[in-house]
Write a structure and sequence with these properties.
With 227 residues, the protein is of the alpha+beta class. The strands form three sheets. A three-stranded antiparallel sheet has the order 1-3-2. Strands 6-7-8 form a three-stranded mixed sheet, covered by helices on one side. β6, α4 and β7 form a beta-alpha-beta unit. α1 runs antiparallel to α3.
Length: 227
Protein backbone atom coordinates (compact mmCIF):
# COMPACT_ATOMS: atom_id res chain seq x y z
CA UNK A 1 0.00 0.00 0.00
CA UNK A 2 1.43 3.35 -1.09
CA UNK A 3 1.36 5.64 1.95
CA UNK A 4 2.78 8.72 0.24
CA UNK A 5 5.77 10.82 1.28
CA UNK A 6 5.49 9.95 4.98
CA UNK A 7 6.51 6.49 6.23
CA UNK A 8 3.87 4.76 8.34
CA UNK A 9 5.40 2.66 11.11
CA UNK A 10 3.37 -0.51 11.39
CA UNK A 11 1.80 -1.62 14.65
CA UNK A 12 -0.02 -4.53 12.99
CA UNK A 13 2.78 -6.79 11.77
CA UNK A 14 3.65 -5.17 8.44
CA UNK A 15 6.92 -3.87 6.98
CA UNK A 16 7.49 -0.17 6.36
CA UNK A 17 9.53 0.23 3.18
CA UNK A 18 10.46 2.62 0.38
CA UNK A 19 8.09 2.12 -2.55
CA UNK A 20 10.06 4.20 -5.08
CA UNK A 21 11.96 7.42 -5.67
CA UNK A 22 12.04 9.10 -9.06
CA UNK A 23 14.70 11.68 -9.77
CA UNK A 24 14.76 14.62 -7.37
CA UNK A 25 11.21 14.08 -6.19
CA UNK A 26 10.63 12.92 -2.59
CA UNK A 27 10.65 9.20 -1.90
CA UNK A 28 7.32 7.43 -1.67
CA UNK A 29 6.80 4.94 1.12
CA UNK A 30 4.68 1.82 1.43
CA UNK A 31 3.33 -0.75 3.85
CA UNK A 32 4.22 -4.27 2.74
CA UNK A 33 2.66 -7.50 3.89
CA UNK A 34 5.00 -10.40 3.18
CA UNK A 35 3.38 -13.84 2.81
CA UNK A 36 5.73 -16.80 2.58
CA UNK A 37 3.72 -19.37 0.61
CA UNK A 38 1.08 -18.64 -2.05
CA UNK A 39 1.79 -19.86 -5.58
CA UNK A 40 4.48 -22.13 -4.11
CA UNK A 41 1.70 -24.08 -2.38
CA UNK A 42 0.23 -24.96 -5.78
CA UNK A 43 3.68 -26.08 -6.92
CA UNK A 44 4.04 -28.17 -3.77
CA UNK A 45 0.72 -29.86 -4.50
CA UNK A 46 1.98 -30.58 -8.02
CA UNK A 47 5.54 -31.69 -7.27
CA UNK A 48 5.35 -33.23 -3.79
CA UNK A 49 1.88 -34.81 -3.90
CA UNK A 50 1.41 -35.30 -7.64
CA UNK A 51 -2.28 -34.39 -7.49
CA UNK A 52 -2.02 -32.19 -10.60
CA UNK A 53 0.24 -32.32 -13.65
CA UNK A 54 0.67 -28.57 -14.09
CA UNK A 55 -0.14 -25.59 -11.90
CA UNK A 56 -3.04 -24.44 -14.08
CA UNK A 57 -4.82 -27.75 -13.43
CA UNK A 58 -5.62 -26.78 -9.86
CA UNK A 59 -8.51 -24.57 -10.94
CA UNK A 60 -10.13 -27.43 -12.86
CA UNK A 61 -9.71 -29.75 -9.88
CA UNK A 62 -11.06 -27.14 -7.44
CA UNK A 63 -14.14 -26.63 -9.61
CA UNK A 64 -15.14 -30.29 -9.16
CA UNK A 65 -16.56 -29.30 -5.76
CA UNK A 66 -18.84 -26.43 -4.76
CA UNK A 67 -16.87 -25.35 -1.66
CA UNK A 68 -13.91 -26.33 0.51
CA UNK A 69 -15.86 -29.02 2.37
CA UNK A 70 -14.67 -27.58 5.69
CA UNK A 71 -10.99 -28.06 4.79
CA UNK A 72 -8.41 -25.33 5.53
CA UNK A 73 -4.72 -25.36 4.61
CA UNK A 74 -2.37 -23.09 6.55
CA UNK A 75 0.90 -23.19 4.55
CA UNK A 76 3.30 -22.23 7.34
CA UNK A 77 6.05 -24.39 5.86
CA UNK A 78 8.78 -22.07 7.15
CA UNK A 79 6.73 -20.25 9.76
CA UNK A 80 4.07 -17.58 9.44
CA UNK A 81 4.98 -14.20 7.98
CA UNK A 82 2.80 -11.06 8.03
CA UNK A 83 0.97 -10.23 10.16
CA UNK A 84 1.93 -12.96 12.67
CA UNK A 85 5.72 -13.39 12.36
CA UNK A 86 5.84 -16.75 14.09
CA UNK A 87 8.97 -18.68 13.10
CA UNK A 88 7.88 -21.76 15.06
CA UNK A 89 4.59 -22.22 13.17
CA UNK A 90 4.33 -25.11 10.71
CA UNK A 91 1.90 -26.15 7.98
CA UNK A 92 -1.49 -27.46 9.05
CA UNK A 93 -4.43 -29.03 7.21
CA UNK A 94 -7.53 -28.69 9.37
CA UNK A 95 -11.14 -29.81 9.10
CA UNK A 96 -10.58 -33.16 7.40
CA UNK A 97 -13.44 -35.66 7.36
CA UNK A 98 -14.20 -38.77 5.30
CA UNK A 99 -16.23 -36.49 3.04
CA UNK A 100 -13.14 -34.52 1.96
CA UNK A 101 -11.56 -35.33 -1.39
CA UNK A 102 -8.81 -33.91 -3.59
CA UNK A 103 -11.17 -31.29 -4.99
CA UNK A 104 -11.72 -29.89 -1.50
CA UNK A 105 -7.97 -30.03 -0.96
CA UNK A 106 -7.43 -28.00 -4.15
CA UNK A 107 -9.97 -25.44 -2.98
CA UNK A 108 -8.25 -25.14 0.38
CA UNK A 109 -4.89 -24.59 -1.35
CA UNK A 110 -6.27 -21.73 -3.45
CA UNK A 111 -8.28 -20.19 -0.66
CA UNK A 112 -5.20 -20.04 1.59
CA UNK A 113 -3.82 -17.23 -0.58
CA UNK A 114 -7.07 -15.27 -0.38
CA UNK A 115 -7.34 -15.61 3.41
CA UNK A 116 -3.73 -14.52 3.91
CA UNK A 117 -4.33 -11.54 1.62
CA UNK A 118 -7.34 -10.48 3.67
CA UNK A 119 -5.27 -10.62 6.85
CA UNK A 120 -2.66 -8.33 5.29
CA UNK A 121 -5.28 -5.94 3.85
CA UNK A 122 -6.95 -5.59 7.25
CA UNK A 123 -3.58 -4.90 8.89
CA UNK A 124 -2.83 -2.25 6.25
CA UNK A 125 -6.14 -0.53 6.84
CA UNK A 126 -5.57 -0.44 10.60
CA UNK A 127 -2.04 0.95 10.20
CA UNK A 128 -2.78 3.52 7.50
CA UNK A 129 -6.34 4.44 8.53
CA UNK A 130 -7.15 4.19 4.80
CA UNK A 131 -9.94 1.92 3.53
CA UNK A 132 -8.88 -0.10 0.50
CA UNK A 133 -11.79 0.15 -1.92
CA UNK A 134 -10.33 -2.02 -4.68
CA UNK A 135 -7.57 -4.64 -4.71
CA UNK A 136 -5.34 -4.61 -7.80
CA UNK A 137 -3.67 -7.95 -8.34
CA UNK A 138 -0.74 -9.19 -10.39
CA UNK A 139 1.51 -12.21 -10.85
CA UNK A 140 0.99 -15.77 -12.02
CA UNK A 141 -1.93 -16.67 -9.77
CA UNK A 142 -4.20 -13.95 -11.18
CA UNK A 143 -4.92 -16.15 -14.19
CA UNK A 144 -6.97 -18.34 -11.83
CA UNK A 145 -10.50 -16.98 -12.18
CA UNK A 146 -11.85 -19.12 -9.34
CA UNK A 147 -9.28 -17.71 -6.93
CA UNK A 148 -9.92 -14.14 -8.07
CA UNK A 149 -13.66 -14.49 -7.45
CA UNK A 150 -13.04 -16.00 -4.03
CA UNK A 151 -10.60 -13.20 -3.25
CA UNK A 152 -13.29 -10.64 -4.05
CA UNK A 153 -15.81 -12.60 -1.98
CA UNK A 154 -13.66 -12.99 1.14
CA UNK A 155 -12.51 -9.34 1.00
CA UNK A 156 -15.98 -8.02 0.19
CA UNK A 157 -14.53 -5.60 -2.36
CA UNK A 158 -13.70 -5.61 -6.04
CA UNK A 159 -10.58 -7.30 -7.38
CA UNK A 160 -9.04 -5.86 -10.55
CA UNK A 161 -6.67 -7.71 -12.90
CA UNK A 162 -4.65 -5.41 -15.21
CA UNK A 163 -3.93 -6.07 -18.86
CA UNK A 164 -0.23 -6.52 -18.03
CA UNK A 165 -0.03 -8.98 -15.16
CA UNK A 166 3.68 -8.79 -14.32
CA UNK A 167 3.59 -5.32 -12.82
CA UNK A 168 6.81 -5.64 -10.79
CA UNK A 169 8.86 -6.03 -13.98
CA UNK A 170 6.73 -3.39 -15.69
CA UNK A 171 7.37 -0.90 -12.89
CA UNK A 172 11.12 -1.41 -13.18
CA UNK A 173 10.94 -0.88 -16.93
CA UNK A 174 8.87 2.26 -16.47
CA UNK A 175 11.35 3.66 -13.93
CA UNK A 176 14.23 3.04 -16.32
CA UNK A 177 12.28 4.61 -19.17
CA UNK A 178 11.61 7.73 -17.12
CA UNK A 179 15.27 7.98 -16.12
CA UNK A 180 16.51 8.04 -19.73
CA UNK A 181 13.68 10.18 -21.07
CA UNK A 182 11.93 7.44 -23.04
CA UNK A 183 8.72 8.33 -21.17
CA UNK A 184 7.71 11.94 -20.65
CA UNK A 185 6.13 11.78 -17.20
CA UNK A 186 3.97 9.73 -14.84
CA UNK A 187 0.79 10.79 -16.61
CA UNK A 188 1.99 9.00 -19.74
CA UNK A 189 2.53 5.84 -17.71
CA UNK A 190 -0.89 6.08 -16.06
CA UNK A 191 -2.46 6.34 -19.50
CA UNK A 192 -0.93 2.96 -20.39
CA UNK A 193 -2.68 1.14 -17.54
CA UNK A 194 -5.74 -0.89 -18.47
CA UNK A 195 -8.17 -3.33 -16.88
CA UNK A 196 -8.40 -6.91 -18.10
CA UNK A 197 -11.14 -8.07 -15.72
CA UNK A 198 -12.92 -7.04 -12.52
CA UNK A 199 -14.47 -9.41 -10.00
CA UNK A 200 -17.13 -8.15 -7.62
CA UNK A 201 -18.07 -9.85 -4.33
CA UNK A 202 -21.03 -12.23 -4.58
CA UNK A 203 -20.87 -14.03 -1.22
CA UNK A 204 -23.37 -13.46 1.57
CA UNK A 205 -21.90 -11.78 4.63
CA UNK A 206 -22.79 -14.65 6.98
CA UNK A 207 -20.96 -17.14 4.76
CA UNK A 208 -17.96 -14.82 4.43
CA UNK A 209 -17.71 -14.29 8.17
CA UNK A 210 -18.06 -18.00 8.90
CA UNK A 211 -15.31 -19.01 6.47
CA UNK A 212 -12.92 -16.39 7.77
CA UNK A 213 -13.58 -17.31 11.39
CA UNK A 214 -12.75 -20.94 10.60
CA UNK A 215 -9.56 -19.86 8.80
CA UNK A 216 -8.44 -17.83 11.79
CA UNK A 217 -9.06 -20.83 14.01
CA UNK A 218 -7.01 -23.05 11.70
CA UNK A 219 -4.14 -20.54 11.79
CA UNK A 220 -3.93 -20.81 15.57
CA UNK A 221 -3.47 -24.58 15.23
CA UNK A 222 -0.20 -23.95 13.37
CA UNK A 223 1.34 -21.91 16.21
CA UNK A 224 4.42 -23.15 18.12
CA UNK A 225 4.61 -26.50 16.34
CA UNK A 226 8.40 -26.33 16.10
CA UNK A 227 10.13 -26.04 19.46
Amino acid sequence: MNTGETPVLSKCGLITTVAFKLGEKPARYALEGSIAITGALVQWMRDNLGLIEKSADIETLARTVKDNGGVYFVPAFSGLYAPYWKATARGVIAGLTRYANKGHFARAVLEATAYQTREVVEAMEMDSKVCLGVLRVDGGMVDNDLLMQFQADILNRSVVRPLIKETTALGSAYAAGLAVGFYKDLEELRANWGVDHTWKPQMESATRDGLYQEWRKAVTRSFDWAG
